[in-house]
Design goal:
The protein has 804 residues and is an alpha+beta fold. Among the domains are: 2-59 and 94-191 and 210-267, Orthogonal Bundle (Penicillin binding protein transpeptidase fold), CATH 1.10.3810; 380-390 and 470-633, Beta-lactamase; 699-803, Sandwich (Immunoglobulin-like), CATH 2.60.40.10. Strands 2-1-5-11-12 form a 5-stranded mixed sheet, covered by helices on one side. It has a 5-stranded antiparallel sheet with strand order 7-6-16-15-14, with helices on both faces. Helix 15 crosses helix 17 (449-459). The longest helix has 27 residues, at 20-46.
């Protein structure tokens, strides 16, 4: 195999071109290294080693088996009966040989079994990474043959030294071609597949001798992490990237031409259908295998015969798969949703009971091998309970009053600009309707958008993110990235983690991290890992119970969803919440009892929008059938009741459900009545200092004016022209935008209302409730005067204010 010898010749030519002093120094370093390595050579010369003829007679690696929670149903046999067909080197495509050598050991035909410099680099890298026995190995192909055939897979210094010594000795008695043949016939390529002949047949349906360059590059890419890079797993993009890396290495070492490289990089390679593998719960199995390989290493999972008992309830898993199969065709036909995913978790343990990662694992038309339960998606309104829980923790109550009105939330955008253009933000409701004053309970139960955004502002984005982290969401970043859109699902989450977060509510505020493992044993029956309950209180019980009470309140959600929606379970106390993204790319539903939590997602893997329907119509019927089945199997009592609040009577009226708290003062949004960061401490002295005050007040004043005109009476009970806000005696902050509005009993007669602050005109309006904004610039006692020009003449209403 002379095609790999020229890299060494190039190195020698480069060394010859160096200045004499540099060449002498370079050679001196090499000599020093060889002198230090001489002891290893001597040791290798007398070290006994098995004959290469014994390789094929050794015991085949044992099978790792993955079971369901009963320890009886085999979900997946990592090897089963090992699939391996041994072929001579001449029956293996030169492309496979060259690709394997290029990525694994480019100087294979030049070294003597060990590369000291590569080994030193690997040790240095591993030391820097804090993993001296793991990470990069710097192993030659010969070392890998020795390790696989003659030694244990445990990573110890002694085992590594033995590997080096035996590799050097093996190179003295066995030809390079024989070593390469052994390597290519013995290497694991994932699951039951050993050797390139079996791998080529399994993945491509062709013999190893007929594999083309792109196929060869894929085969060379797999052995580093066969499960992670599996074309049937969740990381196909990473496999493609590694295949391209193999081709780049081949081009670098002049093993292929530029034209061959270009053609193979762009070639679309078809992999065979892997349905023949007979795998049960495939997305769950790959989820478990990836966990095992990350914890114990690829070699241990591939060869050490682990016995893995998982948390999966296979009966519930089959029901989940059947439900998805039943509803999927109609969901695609009626709503344009081509894919679905489901996760079931036991709240008291965190154990994953079911995981359906797509509507069809082997359905390539929807990228079915992608596990949508672990991929990142925007959760829509299903994120709202986390924000409301944070608000309750900060002192707000389910009875707190807030206005559901279209509102501009960007402080520097005009309150009258109720659009989301540029950086202005004024979200719509799903049906374009707004309900006026509502409680937090009603707003969350009916999934109203504008109240939710207000609740996030009152709570604070950082506090909401901190709560999300506490309940197990790991995919969110900083507050600056999301802004107030966070509460409407502006950040990506996974279905597994969000279902786990809802399990915290179900479990009275105690979080059990989602887990898929009950027990792991090695081939000798030694227990490597046992499930332990790692419950941690992350939320006070009262907060969880308040969320449970709201999400299970069918009466509270009836105005939005109807009394007999799929969210309701007559005779069962089930809490649930839907989520729909603004662009209708994702729909979610999550529900729970104390005994089980189930989350479901539907959409399209290519992010194509669905029909404009809420999740309650698209996905809730499918989820309802599984939830009804699961709650019969995992029965539990009712949620613990919410404890009475001993401070209820002393709370500010707006926290006790009173929105028109002081009729003489007018109708105002919550920021007028409480300090947002300390809602139970009483009224703020200068509410207008809050950057959102003017924007929130504008739609409230418009709404209040509409109510007034409908009854021909002001909030104060008079029919006179009245300056509504700011109220008489208010203290206004200097230099801050203030909003003024008025009431006139006969708007049809109004030509214009003008506002004067200390006789200086500050704004005019001709539309009820005649809202303007102004900025007071001088401290002291001031007079704000409203002058109404009407068909019958001029009328004046004024108030005294303090600007400070």
């Amino acid at each position: 195999m002379k095609f790999l010898r020229h890299p060494i010749r190039r190195t020698r030519r480069l060394v010859a071109m160096l200045p004499e002093w540099l060449r002498l120094s370079f050679m001196g370093l090499i000599a020093l290294g060889l002198f230090g390595f001489g002891g290893v050579i001597t040791w290798a010369a007398v070290m006994p080693i098995p004959s290469i003829t014994n390789f094929e007679n050794r015991q085949v690696a044992e099978s790792t088996k993955i079971y369901d929670r009963t320890d009886k149903i085999v979900l997946y046999d990592v090897f089963g009966s090992v699939r391996r067909t041994t072929v001579p080197l001449e029956d293996i495509s030169p492309y496979i040989q060259r690709a394997t050598i290029a990525i694994e050991d480019a100087s294979f035909y030049e070294h003597n079994g060990f590369r000291p410099l590569a080994f030193a680099r690997a040790i240095w890298t591993n030391l820097k990474n804090g993993n001296p026995l793991g990470g990069q190995g710097g192993s030659t192909i010969t070392q890998q043959v020795v390790k696989n055939a003659l030694l244990t897979q445990r990573k110890t210094v002694t085992r590594k030294l033995q590997e080096i010594i035996l590799a050097i000795r093996l190179e003295r008695i066995v030809s390079k071609d024989d070593i390469l043949t052994t390597y290519l016939n013995e290497n694991p390529y994932g699951g039951t597949i050993y050797g390139v002949e079996e791998a080529s047949q399994y993945f491509f349906g062709v013999s190893a001798k007929d594999a083309d360059l792109a196929q060869a590059a894929y085969l060379a890419a797999l052995p580093q992490a066969p499960t992670y890079y599996s074309p049937y797993g969740n990381h196909r993009d990473d496999l493609d990237s590694r295949k391209n890396l193999v081709l780049a290495r081949m081009l670098e070492h002049e093993l292929i031409t530029q034209d061959e490289y270009n053609e193979s990089v762009n070639e679309t390679v078809q992999f065979k259908d892997a349905a023949e593998a007979g795998i049960k719960a495939p997305h769950f199995v790959f989820y478990v295998r990836e966990y095992l390989e990350n914890k114990y290493g690829v070699d241990e999972v591939q060869r050490d015969g682990l016995r893995v008992v998982t948390t999966l309830d296979y009966d519930l898993q089959k029901k989940a798969e059947d439900v998805v199969s039943k509803y999927a065709p109609g969901m695609e036909r009626n709503f344009g949703a081509s894919n679905e995913g489901i996760v079931a978790i036991e709240p008291g343990t965190g154990q994953i009971l079911a995981m359906v990662g797509s509507r069809g694992y082997f359905d390539d038309t929807i990228d079915g091998k992608v596990n949508v339960t672990t991929s990142h998606q925007q959760p829509g309104s299903s994120f709202k309970p986390i924000v409301y829980a944070t608000a309750f923790e900060n002192g707000y109550t389910p009875d707190t009053m807030i206005f559901d009105l279209k509102t501009q939330f960007t402080a520097h955008c005009a309150p009258q600009n109720l659009t989301s253009t540029g950086d202005c933000y004024s979200p719509d409701s799903f049906d374009g309707k707004f309900k006026g004053p509502v409680t937090f309970r009603s707003a969350l139960a009916q999934s109203l958008n504008n109240p939710a955004v207000k609740v996030l502002y009152l709570t604070g984005i950082n506090k909401a993110l901190e709560m999300a982290t506490r309940v197990g969401i790991t995919t969110l970043s900083s507050a600056a990235e999301y802004g107030l859109t966070l509460v409407l699902g502006g950040g990506d989450v996974t279905l597994v983690e969000l279902t786990g977060a809802y399990s915290v509510f179900a479990n009275d505020g105690v979080r059990n991290p989602p887990t898929a493992i009950l027990r792991v044993e090695d081939a000798r029956g030694n227990v490597l890992e046992n499930y332990e309950n790692k419950g941690e209180r992350v939320m006070e019980p009262q907060i969880a119970r308040q969320i449970n009470s709201i999400l299970s309140d069918n009466e509270a959600r009836t105005p939005e969803f109807g009394a007999n929606s799929p969210l309701n379970f007559p005779g069962k106390n089930v809490a649930d919440k839907t989520g729909t993204t603004d662009n209708f790319v994702d729909v979610w539903i999550l529900g729970y009892t104390p005994g089980i939590a189930i989350g479901a997602w539907a959409g399209n893997n290519d992010n194509k929008p669905m029909e404009k329907r809420i999740a309650a119509f698209i996905i809730a019927p499918m989820w309802h059938e599984l939830m009804d089945y699961a709650t019969d199997k995992y029965q539990s009592g009712d949620f613990a009741p919410v404890a009475p609040d001993p401070s209820q009577d002393s709370l500010p009226p707006v926290l006790r459900g009173e929105w028109n708290t002081n009729p003489a003062e007018g109708i105002h949004e919550i920021l007028h009545w409480i300090s947002k960061d300390s809602p139970r401490s009483g009224r703020p002295s200068n509410p207008a200092r809050d950057g959102q005050y003017a924007n929130w007040e504008y739609p409230v004043q418009v709404w209040a004016g509409g109510q007034i005109f409908g009854t021909s009476t002001t909030p104060g009970g008079t029919t006179a022209f009245t300056l509504l806000s700011p109220a008489a005696g208010s203290t206004l902050p200097v230099g801050v935008t203030i909003q003024a509005s008025s009431y006139y009993p006969y708007p049809q007669n109004v030509i214009q209302i003008s506002y004067f602050l200390n006789d200086a005109l500050v704004g005019t309006s001709n539309q009820p409730p005649y809202v303007i904004t102004f900025v007071p610039n001088a401290r002291g006692i001031s007079t704000l005067r409203a002058v109404a020009q009407t068909a019958g003449g001029t009328e004046i209403s004024q108030v005294s204010l303090v600007v400070q």
